[in-house]
Amino acid sequence: MQNIFLKIEYLGTNYFGFQIQQKKGKSELTIQSVLEKALEKLFKENIRVIGSGRTDRGVHAKAQVVNFKAETKIPLGNIKIALNTLLPQDIRVKRIKKVALDFHARFSVKSKIYRYIIMNSKEPSVFSKDFVWHINSELDLDNMKKAAKELVGRKDFSVFAKEAKRYEDCHRTLSSISIKKKKSFIYIDIEAQGFLRCMARNIVSFLVKVGQGKIRIEDTSPIISKKIPYINKPAPAAGLYLCKVKY
Q: What are the strands, taking DSSP E only, across 130-214?
């Protein structure tokens, strides 16, 4: 029995997220379901993959990590070639290796880095519509950076979670947030030990509101602690990318 590690990249535009889903009695098209079908064709058996985390509908990944177990003598390089032949062009295996049997793509994670891309320009581009959030208003990056510092650390991030009541504990450790601008593009990198559902996108939309002057910097901590009411609205999924998983 081998425990096989895959690093994959994908465009999330055509998928209902990473994780297998059942809605109203039918299976939705997800990254996991497509990957498992390819593995079934290759190994002639049902194989379940474990992902480092779920990505929502429309979210992309440059470095999603999965692992699966299989009894096989096929060389790893051949497995990679075969999978990339069987998979659609918007999903690609970038790296494959054998790992210890106790390695778990989700539970072995130390931290994950998500990148959000904003196109801050007067006019949108048809070529970017599925890959960025276009914002034509001016954003105050200095204020966004100041607010971002208030979010770093271990906190209750339930205000930034979708359906927070589903979680027993919404405390998460946010390691860092960096905000950089290059020409018309703003890159927001968020690293955390773990993320609540929609947490990254809700943090981005919050920071954008700060940058637009709709939220004051000094209200950041009171909003997190729920002393000031706040209704979250996630940034569009198209601008979010899972960039790195650390083990």
A: 133-135, 153-156, 171-182, 185-192
pLDDT digits (tens, 9 = 90+) for 104-118: 999 999 999 999 999
Q: Could you read off the pLDDT of 4-37 as tens digits, one per residue?
A: 999 999 999 999 999 987 666 677 899 999 999 9
* CATH domain 2-99 topology: Alpha-Beta Plaits (3.30.70)
Residue 72: CB partners within 8 Å, gap ≥ 6?
2, 43, 79
Bridge pairing between strands 133-135 and 111-120:
parallel
Among the options 56, 130, 189, 219, which is catalytic?
A: 56
**Whether this model's pTM surpasses 0.85:** yes
Boundaries of CATH 3.30.70.580 in the chain? 2-99
At the top level of CATH, which class does the domain 111-246 belong to? Answer: alpha beta
Active site residue 130: no
